[in-house]
Amino acid sequence: MSEARPPAKVNLTLEVVGRRDDGYHGLRSIFLRVGLSDRLTMAPGTGVADRLTVTGLPGAPTEGNLVLKALDALRRHAGANLSPLDVTLDKQIPAAAGLGGGSSDAASALKLAQGLWGVRLEPDAEVEIATSLGSDVPFFYIDMPAAHVSGRGEHLESLAGPYPGLGLLLVTPPIALSTRSAFGRFDERDQLSNVRPGAGVTERIYEEVFLDEPTTEEMLTWAPQLRDANDLWDAAASLAPALPTLRAALERTTDVPWLMSGSGPTLFALYPSVEEASAAGQSLVRSRLPELESAVINAVDMIGPDPKWRHP
Ligand code: C5P
Q1: N or C: which terminus of the chain carries fewer CB neighbours within 10 A?
Q2: Which ranges constitute the DSSP H helices of the chain?
Q3: pLDDT tens over the chain, length 312 residues
Q4: What pairs with residue 85 in β-bridges?
């Protein structure tokens, strides 16, 4: 049996810079891999087809799961009759949350299956297959602690990291918000034509902070700018009005800026250590904010692979 711990990511920035002919959007983003992970196991199958069992947090599909799509994509590419696999996926990363969990599971599945099947993708095919599964999959497949991301998500420049001093508090409310619908609303509102508060922040933080070894203090100084550097925020907030209400409550209670990861609904804040992130999480729980009902709260660092503290 083979096992992997597919990690989550957050987007420190997410700028939409154009609409592409293939229907996707051109992006500029800084991704950070964080210490919250699913658990994926794979073994030679006992049935006639791949079998997937999903446990842990709710919300991840069994049928149509990206893990199964990854196996299919590898089979098609290899053009060979590769034997069925039995797969288990224990979800600890909230699903459809903007944390890249499904993409990370798919990237790990590609790697584990190559090992079990004894096939080896050529580098070009790796990126092509990873991208075909989802825009965030190449980041996880190439396995970087942090990256400057452009194109649809497939142009990656590895950044130094992890940053051991950084703590992050992640709050994932039970709000359904698909990436597709957030980009759709962004287009409906013609937001590419509007001035966006985060314009240029990705390049500025990349040049001023990430080209050298960034310190946690520097990242914290940038937090107010990063807060407004997710171009999908207005779209997500208009699709899910509970999200701006939650952010206002979090900012009132913690007195720090809250950023949105990906297309949401996960909101997160930066802290000078994972202990401080955990303490802030625990006092949030004690505050009994009605907006936090049924939210999953994780305090993480960039080392992982497990959250240092979780609620519930
Ligand atoms: O690539 P992924 O499957 O994660 O994307 C989900 C949806 O999000 C796409 O179908 C597309 O509508 C939108 N998207 C986009 N531009 C990107 C990434 C995603 O328009 N760069």
Answers
A1: C
A2: 66-78, 101-117, 123-133, 137-142, 179-188, 201-205, 216-227, 233-239, 242-254, 274-287
A3: 999 999 999 999 999 999 999 999 999 999 999 999 999 999 999 999 999 999 999 999 999 999 999 999 999 998 878 999 999 999 999 999 999 999 999 999 999 999 999 999 999 999 999 999 999 999 999 999 999 999 999 999 999 889 989 999 999 999 999 999 999 999 999 999 988 888 999 999 999 999 988 899 999 999 999 999 999 999 999 999 999 999 999 999 999 999 999 999 999 999 999 999 999 999 999 999 999 999 999 999 999 899 999 999
A4: 44
Which of 135, 140, 230 has most ligand 1 atoms within 8 Å of CB, for mutation? 135
Nearest to 236 by CA among 264, 257, 267, 199: 264
Give the chain's count of helices (H) and strands (E). Answer: 10, 13
CA of 175 to the centre of ligand 1 (A): 19
